[in-house]
Amino acid sequence: MDIPLQRILKKIEHEIQLSLKESNQHQIRDHLLSIRTLCNIVLEQPIEKSEEMITTSKAITPMFTKKKEPVETEDEDGNGESLFDF
């Protein structure tokens, strides 16, 4: 049974509004338990990969393929802009 996320979020919002109007601690706890149950329903459903996530990962990959040009040093022992360049 696949319940739309927006429908569950509306129900959580409704339970929050009801709990804010309550003065009885037991009634507030009942609303909070309902909210917890609704949250668990959402969190137990597997996350589906969206096309947006796949597109984003493809866009990031080329950033790491650029090669840096070697830096020339004044002495023969150094290797460029290294912290250990003496």
Count the E strands. 0
Rg of Cα set: 28 Å
Distance between the amino and carboxyl termini: 66 Å
Helix/strand structural class = mainly alpha
Helix/strand order, N-terminal first: HHH
**What characterizes the major β-sheet?**
none
Kindly report the average pLDDT value: 76
- Count of runs of 4 or more consecutive helical residues: 3
Low-pLDDT ranges:
51-55
Please state roughly what percent of the residues sit in beta strands, choosing from under 5%, 5-15%, 15-25%, 25-35%, 35-45% or over 45%. under 5%
Which geometry do the CA atoms define? elongated
Tell me roughly what share of residues is in helical segments: 40-55%
Give a summary of the structure in a few sentences.
The protein is mainly α. The protein has helices at residues 5-21, 25-44, 51-60. It has a domain at 1-44.
Question: What features would you highlight for this structure?
Answer:
single chain, 86 residues, mainly alpha, 0% strand, elongated
Protein described:
This protein has helices at 5-21, 25-44, 51-60. The protein has 86 residues and is mainly α. The longest helix has 20 residues, at 25-44. 55% of the residues lie in helices and 0% in strands. The protein has a domain at 1-44. It is built from three helices and no strands.
Describe the secondary-structure layout.
Blueprint: H1 5-21, H2 25-44, H3 51-60
Helix pairs in contact: 1-2
InterPro entries: DUF5327 (IPR035218)
Region (Disordered): 65-86
Protein name: YwdI family protein
